[in-house]
Amino acid sequence: MDSIAVLYFLEDIAHEKFVRALVRRVAEDSGIPSSRINEEVRNATGGKGTTLSEFSRFLRENQGLQIHVLVVAIDANCHKYTSRLREIRRRVKNAGIGWQVVCAIPDPHIERWYLADPSAIPRAFQKERGLTTHLPRYKCERGWYKQALRRAIEDVAGFVPPLGGVEYGQDIAGAMDLYTAGRDDRALKHFIDDIKQVFTVLKESRP
Q1: Which of 40, 50, 59, 98 is the least crowded, having the fewest Cβ atoms under 10 Å away?
Q2: How far apart are the first and last CA of the chain?
Q3: What crossing angle do the helices spanning 81-95 and 51-61 adopt, rounded to 10°?
Q4: Best CA proximity match to 68, nearest among 203, 193, 182, 183
């Protein structure tokens, strides 16, 4: 199989650690070795308030790239999932982009995805004990899920993670039960299903 070029536009390091690992995992599950995934990452740099405008500029400046999949990861930030999805798709349409575009839209914030399968953190740290709580109920409050993630890792691993836990995104994504995670977080399930569908089509078209 030829390599598959995946270009990422990611909001910050928390998205990069988790989303890239999840994409590689879904590729493996779809029969595409991660060694066949040729990745390039572009991060937004202006903060949450300018992420969408940076995304439009990113589209204008990269129209000539030869890629197969564009993965866009932008938090819903307490807007509705469908509203954020429409906004991203509108900007893609206005830019005239012909790539396959898959949207990762954590609702409200990426740290909720880290917590979507409560058993993943103990497995990531190779600990027998699980979390004392399940996925926190939806709460639109800045910092709520950041604090929940930090507490969860401290509870399981016994130390306070220097970056709040996002530095373990690759390990947590790799340890997740994707069915459980998707069942408890619909936005995450949408992303898993969408990227899986794209990889299935690419695999069939690139034997």
Answers
A1: 98
A2: 5
A3: 30
A4: 203
Distance CA 3, CA 118 (A): 34
Cα of 12 vs its chain's centroid, Å: 11
Sheet containing 100-104: which strands, arranged edge to edge? 37-43, 4-10, 69-73, 100-104
Low-confidence ranges of the chain (pLDDT < 50): none
* pLDDT tens, residue by residue, 167-204: 999 999 999 999 999 999 999 999 999 999 999 999 88
Q: How far apart are CA 198 and CA 30, in angstroms?
A: 10
**Identity at 182, one-letter amino acid code:** G
Crossing angle (nearest 10°) for helices 186-205 and 13-29: 50
For residue 89, what is the enclosing H or E element? Answer: helix 81-95
Q: What is the chain's mean pLDDT, rounded? A: 90
Which residue(s) pair with 43 in the sheet?
10
d(CA 175, CA 196): 18
Contacts (Cβ under 8 Å, ≥6 apart) of 162: none
Angle formed at CA 96 by CA 91 and CA 97, multiple of 5 degrees: 85
pTM of the model: 0.92
At 90, list the tokens. Answer: 């509108």
* Per-domain residue ranges of the chain: 4-205
> Which of 127, 131, 100, 120 has its CA nearest to residue 179?
120
